[in-house]
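Quick one: structure for this chain?
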Amino acid sequence: MTRQIVLDTETTGLSPAQGHRIIEIGCIELLDRRLTGREFHRFLNPERDIDEGAERVHGISRESLENEPYFQEIADEFLEFIADAELVIHNASFDVGFIEHELKLMKHKKPAIEDHAAVLDTLTLARKLHPGQRNSLDALCKRYEVDASKRDVHGALIDSEILANVYLAMTGGQTALLLDDEADATDGQVTADTGSPAARAGFAAIARDLKVVAASPEEVSAHDAMLEKIRKSGACVWDFD
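Got it. Here's what it folds into:
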């Protein structure tokens, strides 16, 4: 049985190296590509002010966090929730960097995330699947037709839910989105799981039959020259995820 935890954080700013802290952690559990309904969600007192730019993104104020727990108070519960799972995170280096920073601040004996769970970065995966395109979470929602209309501002739990839907769509279809109780209510109705080994084998066979036409050296050279011209113009949007 494959256990995955889709995770997101909100923070006081962009970098732990500048003393920024986590203010929200949101996690949801997947078992064999099905949402189980289990969640871990906490707001945290960062013991410092929140950058104005960050507050505009997530809408969380310092005042609203005054009575929330400190990270060290929820650390054991959090690590138990993610233990031995695969963490599914968009731009994982950001969230992992902040979590490890928090663990180091509290002098945890195992501050490295890899000592607790594996990590799958969906941004890296998306860049491999869609090279040269925008691969932000918003862009992926549009590409895979995932509904993000309920999100007025960024939030760790709602972004985790959205990322779970994007991840499932990106890696073989959305057939596993039902909660276990909802799946039981289908009265035995079977839906093809395009993420199954058999389905993947079928896709591989189709891919082998596709004709791949490589660009000529002249076409590659002209393409690179055009990209360099766009970069110099300052209108290069795909470098920003």
